[in-house]
Amino acid sequence: MADFILKPGREKSLKRKHPWVFDGAIAERRGRYKAGDTVNLLDSDRQFLAKGTVSPESSILVRVWSFDPNEPVDHALIKRRLDMAIAARESFDPKAGRRLVHGESDGMPSLVVDQYDQVIVVQFGAMAAERWRETVVAHLAKRLNPTAIYERSDSDGRRYEGLEPETGLLHGGLPDSVIIEENGVKMLVDVAGGHKTGAYLDQRDNRLFVQQHARAKRVLNTFCYTDGFGLHAAKGGATEVVSVDSSASALEIARHNVSLNPDLNIGSFNWCEADVFGFLREQVDGGERYDMVILDPPKFVKSVKHVDRAARAYKDIAMLGAKLLNPGGMLVNFSCSSAMSLDLFRKVTASAFSDANVDGCLIKTLHAPRDHWVSMAFPEGDYLKGFVTVSR
Ligand code: SAH
Q1: What is the C-alpha to C-alpha distance for residues 298 and 294, in angstroms, rounded to an integer?
Q2: 298 lines ligand 1 (CB under 6 A)
Q3: Rounded to 5, what percent of the chain is helix, strand, coil?
Q4: Which residues, 6 or more positions from 70, have their beta carbon under 8 angstroms from its beta carbon?
Q5: Scanning 19, 44, 261, 309, which has its CA 20 to 30 A from the CA of 251?
Q6: Which protein residue has the closest C-alpha to ligand 1 atom 10?
Q7: Which of 197, 221, 245 for a ligand 1 pocket mutation test, highest count of atoms within 8 Å of Cβ?
Q8: Coil, helix or strand for 75?
């Protein structure tokens, strides 16, 4: 096994159990290795720090599997980690959709596993997970006996590792449709063609919050995707839901989702295929008002370098959202960029209210649910944050 020796002082993050080593931290590479091999990480005094998968084309050169010199990185370790991750989600109902493996925070770097009832979707986001794909798939099939295991390794990250996108069936056969029931709301999951692994399970608890606060309200749901928030608002008694997304196929599923929930009144929904930035401006110019405005944009910050530009975009939409609020109305705004810290996002939201000339009171901070837990050693995992602010 090759030994990678860190530059003096660069061992600090590994000592805090952070699982990434960047190429700039390495002083010397000893021995032969190829992409996907396990390598040892040693400090400048040649003391063992950790071991992980090497990905020579990536700036994240090594992703750590173990900090224990006596723990081999082998099939048994992968199965053990999968078992631990699955056990931690035992109380989550698979029929509601649940995340079984949340990458680094489950000690399984770059691996995501989501379960939608009988269908499991896997994402091998980088070389570290790619290397163990057969073991992962075989163990999931044996442990959970799913109808299908489907691969959605088409996230951006693989490009930086020299890995091609891979999608398709790995086990069993996909049913005609995959439907989950979340907080009493049925939703179709487009496993093969939808975003991410098919659904945004990370907003489950926040959609429940919206359901619980929507009674008798006029709700604007922007960046709605298949309208999870809108359906929850209607379930919670909203009188009118206006939902906006630029994706026609997502809106088509949104329409279909209403038909899956016969207790919801189709008449209260209004879907608009539009660019949210322009839509919000038109709504402000047209003097529209809402009791609740939800802003759940895609990741605006691709890297820390672009955080300023992204902060302006988050502020722009939050300012327009705040202007659309009736007195006592609620703005629910999210960022799913890990480069956008909670603190900065709060400042951005505060200045949006100030620019809108609306007096806002923060009543709640929102995060991803517990099946998307974040290891304290891996702050990058804390990507989703949201604020509920009420206008006064
Ligand atoms: N709130 C959703 C998830 C939103 S994901 C849920 O709970 O499931 C972000 C969505 O924003 C995607 O559906 C994408 O199609 C849409 N989107 C991205 N940029 C947009 C833009 N400028 N205008 C409108 N929609 C946009």
Answers
A1: 13
A2: yes
A3: 35, 30, 35
A4: none
A5: 309
A6: 223
A7: 245
A8: helix
The three-point CA angle 205-129-369 to 5° equals 10
Has residue 191 been placed in a domain? no
Q: Would the pLDDT of 302 be above 90?
A: no
Rg (CA), the chain: 22
Q: Are 342 and 374 in contact (CB under 8 A)?
A: no
Same domain, 255 and 148: no
Asked if residue 282 has its Cβ within 6 Å of ligand 1, the reply is: no
**Whole-number Å distance between alpha carbons of 233 and 203:** 13
* Contacts for 264 with CB less than 8 Å, ≥ 6 apart: 231, 234, 235, 258
Task: Confirm or reject: Cβ of 227 under 6 Å from ligand 1.
Answer: no
Q: Which residues contact 310 (CB under 8 A, 6 or more apart)?
A: 300, 301, 337, 339, 340
Please give the C-alpha separations between residue 160 and each of 12, 164, 165, 272, in angstroms, as whole numbers.
25, 10, 11, 35
Our answer to whether residue 272 is catalytic in this structure is no
> What pLDDT, in 10s, does the model give residues 213-270?
999 999 999 999 999 999 999 999 999 999 999 999 999 999 999 999 999 988 899 9
Angstrom distance (rounded) from CA 61 to CA 42 = 14
Q: Pick from 66, 83, 113: which residue ends a domain?
A: 66
Last residue of a domain, one of 172, 192, 216: 172
What is the Å distance from ligand 1's center to 246 Cα? 7
Residue 181, in any domain of the structure:
no
Note down the domain range covering 258. 200-391
Rounded distance, CA 233 to CA 268, Å? 10
Q: Going by CA atoms, what residue is nearest to atom 23 of ligand 1? A: 275
Protein residue whose Cα sits closest to atom 18 of ligand 1: 298
Place of tokens 């602010």: 389
Encode pLDDT of 95-104 as tens digits: 999 999 999 9
CA of 377 to the centre of ligand 1 (A): 30
Ligand 1 center from residue 318 Cα (angstroms): 15
